[in-house]
Amino acid sequence: MSEAQIRESRVANTPNPKNLVSGATGDWEIVLGLEVHAQVSSEAKLFSGASTEFGSEPNSQVSLVDAAMPGMLPVINWKCVEQAVRTGLGLKAQVNCYSVFDRKNYFYADLPQGYQISQFKYPIVGEGIIEIDLDDGETKQIGIERLHLEQDAGKSMHDQHPSMSFVDLNRSGVALMEIVSDPDMRSAAEAQAYVKKLRAILRYLGTCDGNMEQGSMRADVNVSVRRPGDPLGTRCEIKNVNSIRFIGQAIEHEARRQIAVIEDGGTIKQETRLFDPKNGETRSMRSKEEAHDYRYFPDPDLLPITFEQSWVDEIAATLPELPDDKKARFVSEYGLSVYDAGVLVSESESANFFEQVAKGRDAKMAANMVVGSVFAGLNKSSITLAECPISADQIGALIDLVADDTISTRIAKDIFDMMFYEGPDQGKDPSVLVEEKGLRQVTDTGEIEAAVDAVISANPDKVEQALAKPKMAGWFVGQVMQSTGGKANPQAVKVMVLEKLGIEEA
Predict the structure, then answer these.
(1) CA 391, CA 385: separation in Å to the nearest integer?
(2) Which CATH number covers residue 471?
(3) Cβ proximity of 32 and 221 under 8 Å
(4) By CB neighbour count within 10 A (0-12 exposed, 13-18 middle, 19+ buried), where does 97 fall?
(5) With 70 as the cut, is the pLDDT of residue 293 above it?
(6) By the 8 A CB rule, do 195 and 34 touch?
(7) Contact 416, 498 (CB under 8 A)
(8) Per-residue pLDDT tens for 336-365?
């Protein structure tokens, strides 16, 4: 089967019933394709040496080329070419050793030259594949149609003056990778999973920081609906959606809107729309003559980009271990569940953090501590891993204290909270806290026996129940642990309880 046939089969595949949307007249299938604009990680723009630093004063990072001054010629930033090739390899896509820059002609107030330098017929990267992870544990392959390089436009600002709009050209000429997917996604959840996975790959590669809040990654979302099994419907493009949450909301609203129009006897007009996050709805921006309603021609100021396959091979040899490969390794090498491995590799920083914690230790315990305690703490505190008050070495030291029976798992949780959350003990080493707080685990059999005897004598009714139903012995263990403040060795408590009650362990 050819690549084209494979792509067609993905579009025409049997609908998954759980993805169907119920309308007034029956079920509908959503068909989605995304065009993701990812800002290339480079200190200079695509065709000039102007800075790309975020947050600078308006119009402070604009070269004569970016401002389209007469006679100024673009000069390719080869670092951006290398980053595009690197990304193509990370997407398991075809890297083209010959590509051409075109002029994409349209008028925006923040596009000084009246055209955008982009690529059309001959992009730098061709077809590839991304495998996304779904909430039900399944995976799905999403086709990549192409990746091409282009320059960003400036930014129009309408909130600086009551009657005038201002233009900031700092972003004008910034290098973008436009990554175009095939229409292989069938739900908002799949589209969100796709963007998450793509962002993770770009961050692993170091080719884009993926910061959607700062505009360095944004998506144009193409949405259409059809009856299950029917040909593709007319699509609408939702421009510049800049968060994963908004992508989901935009898709849900737009699909419902299109279904309502069709069921009311109307037809969908091919158009460009905008998403209004305040109202959670899309609204019309402009009509489209056809799928590609821009006029292109080869840029006469730029030679085609050509390079040898050997250079591509050199870049390929420097690629890091990517999320899918790392996930598979975490499952096979550390014995982690597919879910835990997927969570840990979602960002390279979290994967590296886990491996530092797990080095020389019980990997499953390390994963539980990182996923269950560290990530939960980060979410609760609304901070990033880079801002975590506890280092990976400190988490490892805490695990060591459990492993050598210095503390119980119950006490470990308490110590973690002391170390993590704001207070006098935040950031302290766990061994210091154990000694300062007197939290060392009780292993003295005499102390444990006394605690067990006290609980048994105070609960004769529970003793009778346990003798009739041996699993009740667990209740006594819990009571003893509670009475000792969690400091008693739980295994020693269990053995003592069974012995005192005369129950054999099942």
Answers:
(1) 10
(2) 1.10.10
(3) yes
(4) middle
(5) no
(6) yes
(7) no
(8) 999 999 999 999 999 999 999 999 999 999
250, part of any domain: yes
Best CA proximity match to 307, nearest among 492, 16, 97: 97
Statement to judge: residues 366 and 228 lie in one domain: no
User: pTM, whole model, 2 decimals?
Assistant: 0.86
Query: DSSP labels for 202-233?
Result: HHHHTS----TTTTSEEEEEEEEEE-TTSPP-
10 Å CB burial of residue 235 (0-12, 13-18, 19+) is: buried
Quick one: average pLDDT of 269-298? 83
Per-residue pLDDT tens digits for 296-305: 999 999 999 9
SS3 of 384-448: CHHHCCCCHHHHHHHHHHHHCCCCCHHHHHHHHHHHHCCCCCCCCCHHHHHHHHCCCCECCHHHH
**Percent helix / strand / coil, the chain, rounded to 5:** 40, 20, 40
| Residue 480 structural domain | 445-501
- Which pLDDT value is given to residue 288? 61
**How deeply is 158 buried, as exposed, middle or buried, from its count of CB atoms within 10 A (0-12, 13-18, 19+)?**
exposed
Note whether 198 and 111 are same-domain residues: yes
Whether 307 and 336 map to the same domain: the answer is: no
Cα 168 from Cα 149, distance rounded (Å)? 22
- The widest CA-to-CA distance across the chain, in whole angstroms, is 97
CB 263 within 8 A of CB 23: yes
